[in-house]
Amino acid sequence: MRERLRGRGLRTAALAPLALLAGMALVGVCVLGLMGLDRIGAFGVGTVQVTGAKGATATAVREAALATVGSASMLSVDPAHVAQAVAELPEIRSAEVDRAFPGTLRIRVVRERAVALAPTGKGLVLVGASGAVLGRPQGRVQLPVISAAPADIPGPGGVVTAPRVLEQIALAAVPSRTVRLRAIGFGDDGMTALLAGGGQVRFGDGRDLPVKVKVARAVMRKADGAFAYIDVTVPTAPVLRTATGDPLTANAPALNPGALPPVGDLGDWVAGAAPAESIRTVFG
Prior knowledge:
single chain, alpha/beta, Ubiquitin-like (UB roll), Rossmann fold, 2 domains, three-stranded mixed sheet, 6 helices, 33% helix, 24% strand
């Protein structure tokens, strides 16, 4: 009995290398088969599926992906490289790419949210919440105009780095259905915004902007009719100046006069001017 078991063990040990060689041969055949299919174009990129964007943006994503892939097959496509190329589009904040064999690229994108309009030497451009410049607006856009010199606004695809311009963008990015801003800039009282419905909100610096917007909204709801300005520089002690004479505010600082002209009539901007200087062009 022991001799039979020993014989079986010897035969199994002898067959083990053969099984290993057979497995390696099978893997080699599979690899050669895949390479053959790759050469005849069986794994070419035929479809690009985009989620997270529609219309012209989705078309731009597909074109960027296909331009990056070129004639490469699905086997040689680098998803990270394609994602990087797509994310370089001005209107895209981030992208993820997966391969779905035999010939589909699946791309999930997060769009850049436009929050403001910024002046350049050739008109206004859209600016995203991250500071990315998204290009020219299509049609009429209901977004606040920020105060900036053309030198502070790079071309489409660039990112704003000027600190005071970024503060204005951060304010424009704070969501609020009630506090609808028409223009933002810097004056003697710090960052100030013109409201779409009239009046001003003075924010001071760029700290605690979401809190300041909430306080401004609360004060607006309690205001009886039109008001000249709301000052939330210190959000725990907001100030409301009414549009009509009020003995309590008779000695308050004078209101910065003027109103924002139509978007197309902002006038010429001086290259290299600081936002604090440019605000005079916006507010008159």
